[in-house]
Amino acid sequence: MTDHPGAGSPWSRFPEELTGLDGELLTGERIPRWAAEDFGHTVHAPPLAVLSPRSVRDVREVVAAAARRGIPVAARGGGHSVHGQAQAPGGIVIDMTPLGRVVRMSDTEVTVEGGALWRDVVAATLPHGRTPPVLTDYLGTSVGGTLSVGGIGGMSHRHGVQTDCVLSLDVVTGAGEEVRCSPDRNRDLFDAVRAGLSQCALVVRATLRLERAPARVRRYVLPYDGLAEYLADQHRLAHEGRFGYLEGQPTPQPDGTWHHLMEAVAHQPCDRAAWPPDDRDLLGDLAFRRGAEEIEELDYADFLDRMTPGEALLRETGEWFHPHPWLNLFVPGAAAHSVVSTTLAGLTRHELGNSGLVLLYPVPTARIRTPLLRLPDDDTMYLFALLRTAPGDDPAARDAMTAANREIYDRARAAGAVAYPVNTLRMSPEDWRAHFGPVWDRLARARRRYDPAGVLTPGQGLAY
Ligand SMILES: Cc1cc2nc3c(=O)[nH]c(=O)nc-3n(C[C@H](O)[C@H](O)[C@H](O)COP(=O)(O)OP(=O)(O)OC[C@H]3O[C@@H](n4cnc5c(N)ncnc54)[C@H](O)[C@@H]3O)c2cc1C
């Protein structure tokens, strides 16, 4: 790779003009390998430079200079994209993690830099008995990275997604300007950034709502033999809000059938002494297989961090570094049984991968107030996620999983499902237009206004 592809190219003299940076612009041999990598290990698009910023000014200057020359730019937070969404082929990757500080905190809100990992956010808030209302299952994702897509979790049935819990954002637009936006200020930008796939601006600071954190949780894992009973109980619990957290996993059985494990978690009420809760009150009317339930009590912090031991194990076995051709769908409640049962009937353990898993849990759609997060037309949607792991040495298996994702997406879409866009899914510009549907014009307008040179986040594959 050369630093300077040619005197006439947009790249010509670019690095020399950015000599006043607080951080560093890495080019040539100094470009780290991770800049053309992500958790998906499917797309490898080398950039021409990586910015390791020391200040928001660095981000502003590099984006502005790139915009003047039409050079693509992508922010990279935790690097957990699964299809090159944080890569910038022939452009600049901005490593946001050096801008990862917790800036300030009160009882009701915390301001963090865009590259902060959620793990760092909760490490700062929990000692004060405060928590963001919604957290992803895995805390190694970055704040900017999940706000780019939505950020869904087991608390979403009560609080919506993470982009619903943002009070204000400081962003660097595609023109390199730093702008503050919130529901009362530059509202169009606020709405274009939240779940806007980083098409208009990069998040450099986010002020997030906090609420009182539970001290303890009581976690119930409830096995269901039948999908219909599982969905019916989940639907009821999601609307009723009996538990603080609600998720679940279909699990393949040796005979090729699927059972379903509901995961329901009671949060220790902070304002009531009665603890533990009466299990009969919480579980009495549910249709799970009696006697096979598992119940445990945990500190809230340990519960949030529950993926860490599994991650350590997968790093040890190497599977953490294998390809992850993932598919996440939002399926309308009315079609959940048919979409899920058809999909699972055609899915073997082999096609999910050794450490792969399936998630299935409900969210009342009215809880979500992020305009660009596309939802099915139903009062309830289910996150239906096929979190596949391909063998490390079998690109054909990885490609077959990716192709299968497309087939499942097309079938589910015909039944009213939409993509939760954190997928290994080849989306054409037309697919994206159809995905955004009635809000496409809003996104395209914001893109023209805030990223007129069209440089931000090419890895998403949108075209305007
Ligand atoms: C193990 C695991 C568990 C997960 N669990 C959940 C879950 O429970 N719920 C859920 O909703 N998702 C989950 N995800 C998906 C994950 O939240 C998304 O892929 C998210 O976008 C990853 O953010 P990141 O910073 O780690 O990734 P990156 O790949 O670094 O970034 C993701 C996207 O955000 C953009 N971006 C990064 N930083 C910024 C910034 N500061 N400003 C603007 N754009 C930025 C990137 O350009 C890219 O397009 C999980 C992923 C993994 C690998």
UniProtKB/TrEMBL annotation:
The keyword Oxidoreductase applies. Keywords: FAD, Flavoprotein, Oxidoreductase. Pfam families: Cytokin-bind (PF09265), FAD_binding_4 (PF01565). Transmembrane segments: none annotated. PROSITE patterns: FAD_PCMH (PS51387), OX2_COVAL_FAD (PS00862). It comes from the Bacteria. Residues 43-213 form the FAD-binding PCMH-type domain. This is FAD-binding protein.
